[in-house]
């Protein structure tokens, strides 16, 4: 990522042994700071990986059309780079919101040349316009942030203050049980549950709150409905420390103890698996913590394995005929 450089930038290429039947490329979108540095630190993801940075990172400019303008521009960036067909989207924090927005615009476009098979959200909590939030909406003060990144954070806050997450007509995968493989096993996960992997723990099914569709949405026809791609959430389990005397969490930690970070109760069901990492939100890609970067690579590969198997886009990485676990 550099001024006047390509956008998106190709971060990884498909290994030679996978090129005869390549998995879908992964397109990662920047966080609120506008950068993609963290994605360049990741280990091998065994597929083509692209990274989109904020084009206003170097000039401090704003998107007058907000998040929707960004999403539409990033679709054009992908087209210009020759990205087409089936892809996976993902991003850390704001990148998760933008992934949902991009997926929504592509899903409603009958002439789209790109199809989003799945999304990996990296610690992206559910969002409401701040006027609808009960409690504080501030972020912690992070020391020694470069001015360009700080400006992007400020622009980000301006955009999401009134922004609403994309609306969908129904749940992912038509609200049916999903079958996928991960870690040498196969799973069937019904509606109302997600497959959950705690940090250093084993996979298990957990129930999540159910979304009650508003009456005006329920009355709409299901014909031609637009539904979200199945999504895997990588969740940080640590909250940011609070200053002395403060009891209310920062906005980024409002849903920290909810395994789906507030999504399951507030949107049609689309998160199919949740993977915990031992970090707070802001240190998931800490460049001085090699162990953290290695763990993020491991968990991201698990997330990709799940999405590949849901989409049936490539053969599962395990061999033989693994046990099928029904939950």
Automatic annotation (TrEMBL):
Domain of life: Eukaryota
Alphabetical list of InterPro entries matching this protein: AB_hydrolase_fold (IPR029058), Thioesterase (IPR001031)
Pfam families hit by this protein: Thioesterase (PF00975)
Keyword terms, alphabetized: Hydrolase
Sequence intervals crossing the membrane: none
SUPFAM superfamilies: alpha/beta-Hydrolases (SSF53474)
Gene3D superfamilies: alpha/beta hydrolase
Keyword Hydrolase included in the entry's annotation: yes
GO molecular function: hydrolase activity
Oxidoreductase recorded as keyword: no
Domain Thioesterase: residue ranges: 49-143
Stated name of the protein: Alpha/beta-hydrolase
The species this protein was found in: Trichoderma longibrachiatum ATCC 18648
